[in-house]
């Protein structure tokens, strides 16, 4: 009897561990399927749209310079926060003075307008799971030839998992999932391919 219970316990542990490991991958394919059928209600349960929107906007605005760390917190680091404010004020005053003393001086470049929501439409989310990167809003998944690329794990912990999709022309798109319950995971971040990755993906090392 004890041997039978031990076997049952071990089988349950193995099955539970396997399900836990596979859950982010299942969520990825669920997102792909829901996006393909434009099931917005299902996507709302699978994707943290606020988190993904924030991450995409930061990347698109940063461009080649990359995303910077958040500014110092006024609560946790009042000295750093104060210094940051003074630095911004100094820059603003300096720019205003330059405009007054040298009106012909080139103006600071305008901040580009980024339509982040265009990346969060079902069609665009589907394109992102295909590795379309920044081209997702204008990419037509129906024109994709062959079998859609399979995601692969690059990181796994008790709370977070990262899956990547490679594209020979655009580079690697990374999807970050966070665990919300024992088996329910939610997409919280999409890292778009970086400039130069396409060359590394297209040409083998050595």
Can you describe this structure?
With 206 residues, this protein is α+β, with helices and mostly antiparallel strands. It has a domain at 22-66 and 111-202. The protein is built from six helices and four strands; from the N terminus they run H-H-H-H-H-E-E-E-E-H. Strands 1-2-3-4 form a four-stranded antiparallel beta sheet. Strand 1 and strand 2 (160-167) form a beta hairpin. It is globular, with a radius of gyration of 23 Å. The N and C termini lie far apart (59 Å). 19% of the residues are buried. Mean pLDDT is 79; it is low at 7-16.
Secondary-structure map:
Layout: H1 2-36, H2 40-46, H3 49-62, H4 78-101, H5 122-129, E1 152-156, E2 160-167, E3 171-179, E4 185-191, H6 197-202
Task: Give the percentage of residues in beta strands.
Answer: 5-15%
Low-confidence stretches: 7-16
Helicity range: 40-55%
- How does the overall form come out from the CA principal axes? globular
H/E topology pattern: HHHHHEEEEH
Total count of strands:
4
Helix run count: 6
Annotation keywords:
about 210 residues, alpha+beta, four-stranded antiparallel beta sheet, 4 strands, about 15% strand, globular
Brief summary:
With 206 residues, the chain is α+β, with helices and mostly antiparallel strands. It has six helices and four strands.
């Amino acid at each position: 009897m004890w041997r039978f219970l031990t076997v049952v316990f071990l089988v349950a542990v193995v099955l539970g561990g396997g399900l836990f490991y596979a859950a982010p991958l299942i969520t990825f394919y669920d997102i792909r399927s829901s996006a393909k059928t434009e099931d917005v209600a299902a996507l709302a349960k699978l994707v943290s749209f606020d988190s993904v929107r924030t991450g995409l906007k930061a990347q698109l605005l940063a461009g080649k310079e990359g995303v910077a760390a958040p500014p110092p917190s006024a609560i946790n680091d009042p000295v750093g926060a104060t210094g940051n404010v003074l630095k911004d004020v100094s820059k603003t005053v300096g720019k205003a003075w330059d405009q007054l003393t040298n009106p012909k001086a080139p103006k600071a470049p305008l901040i580009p307008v980024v339509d982040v929501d265009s990346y969060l439409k079902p069609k665009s989310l589907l394109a992102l799971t295909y590795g379309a990167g920044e081209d997702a809003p204008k990419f037509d998944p129906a024109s994709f030839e062959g079998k859609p690329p399979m995601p692969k794990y690059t990181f796994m912990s008790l709370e977070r998992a990262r899956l990547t999709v490679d594209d020979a022309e655009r580079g690697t798109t990374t999807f970050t999932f966070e665990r919300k319950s024992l088996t329910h995971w939610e997409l919280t971040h999409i890292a778009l391919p970086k400039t130069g990755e396409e060359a590394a993906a297209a040409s083998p090392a050595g």
